Amino acid sequence: MSISPTASLYLDQELVHERIRTLHREAEEERLASRMRSVRKARRQVERASRRLTSALARI
After folding, report:
1. Concatenated DSSP letters of 9-53
2. CB 9 within 8 Å of CB 16
3. Does the model's pTM come out above 0.70?
4. In Å, how far are 33, 36, 57, 58 from 45, measured between CA atoms?
5. Which of the 8 DSSP states describes residue 54?
6. Per-residue model confidence as pLDDT tens digits over 22-46
Protein backbone atom coordinates (compact mmCIF):
# COMPACT_ATOMS: atom_id res chain seq x y z
CA MET A 1 0.00 0.00 0.00
CA SER A 2 1.31 3.41 -0.90
CA ILE A 3 0.15 6.85 0.20
CA SER A 4 -1.00 9.53 -2.14
CA PRO A 5 1.22 12.50 -2.98
CA THR A 6 -1.22 14.76 -1.12
CA ALA A 7 -1.02 12.60 2.00
CA SER A 8 2.76 12.51 1.70
CA LEU A 9 2.90 16.30 1.41
CA TYR A 10 0.64 16.66 4.47
CA LEU A 11 2.84 14.30 6.49
CA ASP A 12 5.97 16.18 5.44
CA GLN A 13 4.37 19.48 6.46
CA GLU A 14 3.36 18.00 9.81
CA LEU A 15 6.93 16.83 10.41
CA VAL A 16 8.25 20.29 9.59
CA HIS A 17 5.71 21.94 11.90
CA GLU A 18 6.51 19.50 14.70
CA ARG A 19 10.23 20.22 14.29
CA ILE A 20 9.55 23.96 14.44
CA ARG A 21 7.46 23.49 17.61
CA THR A 22 10.27 21.40 19.11
CA LEU A 23 12.85 24.08 18.28
CA HIS A 24 10.67 26.78 19.83
CA ARG A 25 10.20 24.69 22.97
CA GLU A 26 13.94 23.99 23.21
CA ALA A 27 14.73 27.68 22.72
CA GLU A 28 12.32 28.62 25.52
CA GLU A 29 13.90 26.03 27.79
CA GLU A 30 17.34 27.44 27.02
CA ARG A 31 16.15 31.00 27.76
CA LEU A 32 14.74 29.81 31.09
CA ALA A 33 17.97 27.98 31.95
CA SER A 34 19.97 31.09 31.03
CA ARG A 35 17.80 33.28 33.27
CA MET A 36 18.21 30.79 36.11
CA ARG A 37 21.99 30.87 35.68
CA SER A 38 21.88 34.68 35.73
CA VAL A 39 19.81 34.70 38.91
CA ARG A 40 22.20 32.26 40.63
CA LYS A 41 25.17 34.39 39.58
CA ALA A 42 23.49 37.55 40.85
CA ARG A 43 22.69 35.87 44.17
CA ARG A 44 26.32 34.80 44.57
CA GLN A 45 27.44 38.37 43.85
CA VAL A 46 24.99 39.74 46.42
CA GLU A 47 26.15 37.21 49.00
CA ARG A 48 29.81 38.14 48.38
CA ALA A 49 29.01 41.85 48.61
CA SER A 50 27.09 41.26 51.82
CA ARG A 51 30.04 39.39 53.33
CA ARG A 52 32.41 42.19 52.30
CA LEU A 53 30.09 44.79 53.82
CA THR A 54 29.74 42.81 57.06
CA SER A 55 33.50 42.44 57.22
CA ALA A 56 34.07 46.15 56.56
CA LEU A 57 31.52 47.15 59.18
CA ALA A 58 33.14 44.83 61.72
CA ARG A 59 36.45 46.63 61.20
CA ILE A 60 34.97 50.05 62.02
Report:
1. HHHHHHHHHHHHHHHHHHHHHHHHHHHHHHHHHHHHHHHHHHHHH
2. no
3. no
4. 18, 14, 18, 20
5. H
6. 999 999 999 999 999 999 999 999 9
